[in-house]
Amino acid sequence: MLPSFYQKYLEKYLKPAQLITLKMLVWLLQSQKQVRIERLAATLPLPILENSRRRHLQRFLSLGSLNILALWFPLIREIIYHRIKVGTQIIIAIDRTQWSYNNVLMVSAIHQKRAFPVFWTLLDKKGACNLAEQKQVLRPVIRLLNKYQIVVVGDREFHSIELAQWLHRNKVSFILRQKCDTTFRSKRQISQPLSSIPLQPGIRLFYQNISLTQKKGFNRFNLAAYWKRKYKGNQEKEPWYLLTNLSDLKSATQIYKQRYGIEAMFKDCKTGGYNLEDSKTSPDRLIKLILLIALAMTSAWLHGQRTQLQGQHEYVCRLTETGRTRRRHSKFWIGLYGESWLAAFQSCQLWVEEMLSLIANKKLFYQRGLRAINLIEQPL
């Protein structure tokens, strides 16, 4: 179920029939965990021929009103404004994911180790993106979140000094991971590759006012070099070389660690959630399918957050064992599978009532579970 503030806003831009179709599709994404048109058409609860349902979905996904800037930006801004205080720091991750012939460049906001999709585009090529494409996805996000202290983080694909210079000129902080064969030069020193920095696991170094290019017109920035120590038998294969305009080592490394929230989000979009990689639809419809996934994903996260605050998440997921340092399940997972549990309960309600009549000694526990269901299914 979509949060009420989603519905109020969407009513302004979509016709009633279009809004109903959108709500059905979001519900199907949560229940089927699939974005293939054939699968969605097969389960779309409209009393028309299957071929008609498929055409209905194709027409819906061709609507010009399903626009990221018009529909999604106001909603994601509302989510961010209610969770991150205006004027404080916000971490923005830029990343690219590719499967089959699809190549998606995405910018996301990181909050509580999770990434929320903000803006995305489909590249009409395979492989890495260029500076113009990076600016294309970053500009609208920088304008949208201009009331925050933005820090852009990117992996080695986004290592270019040109991107760093552009962000710096736009008064945006950045942390961009560099390739180990990149050369740098401190003042009055000769150029040397980053791999020549003497690093061992657990060691951190910070270089100020270094240059990555001999071209004129580029600012000098700082370099944070860090190799994570071995932890629970896991050892990072390579150190981090982070180009940044932040002034200290600790901030640069701590903020860059949060970039991995976007990896979790891509997993949610693909094998861990909605199986986006199974989609064979056209590029234009794929962009709109990702919009539907963004609506479904954030809705699941919001429901999962409330379920945790209510203390009812134990009815949805396994308890975290003593000694376990990481949560077993995320808020997104709790929201997603909480919806599945509710749907299963509603489909089998008569059987559940029959079960209750047969096991009087367990009735108290079932009543507590029914109360949990009532709390979880309340609209946001």
UniProtKB/TrEMBL annotation:
This is IS4 family transposase. Pfam families: DDE_Tnp_1. One of its GO terms (molecular function) is transposase activity. One of its GO terms (biological process) is DNA transposition. PANTHER family: TRANSPOSASE (PTHR37319), TRANSPOSASE TN5 DIMERISATION DOMAIN-CONTAINING PROTEIN (PTHR37319:SF1). Transmembrane segments: none annotated. It comes from Aerosakkonema funiforme FACHB-1375. Residues 134-297 form the Transposase IS4-like domain.
